[in-house]
Prior knowledge:
It is built from 1 helix and 12 strands, in the order αββββββββββββ.
Amino acid sequence: xxxxxxxxxxxxxxxxxxxxxxxxxxxxxxxxxxxxxxxxxxxxxxxxxxxxxxxxxxxxxxxxxxxxxxxxxxxxxxxxxxxxxxxxxxxxxxxxxxxxxxxxxxxxxxxxxxxxxxxxxxxxxxxxxxxxxxxxxxxxxxxxxxxxxxxxxxxxxxxxxxxxxxxxxxxxxxxxxxxxxxxxxxxxxx
Length: 190
């Protein structure tokens, strides 16, 4: 397997939303469902401030990404072969876990509803990128936990949604490199 085909959900999520990760003391697990046009990607997320684990299983065998912002690196794990690849932490590894969106200009309440068992407020949000591009979103914020459950591009071509969110302390082992794993030999070619 070549690494160029592994696209973590965090890369897609950060690219689409420009999201940030700063949220003091936040720890949770959730299912993250990303829809881009007709493609759906499901990822299990285990999150703790400055570190998170994403278990991707949409494209065949389970793949795992452990992001350690505190160490400025990420490990891409292949459990089937017990191998890992270390990469530098980049902006593309970030997750959106805060209600405020990067570059937010306006936020208007549209309505309320219950999502995944949480009372939520639906907002229409307008943002502006560093390059000056204006984007429009719909965002559902769970009012009982102040957490963004769903974000949809207003034109409807992509969505991201957290489901089955459970807050509480996460064990350290989720964010550590497994001892039995070996680094990928990048010199070997298929």
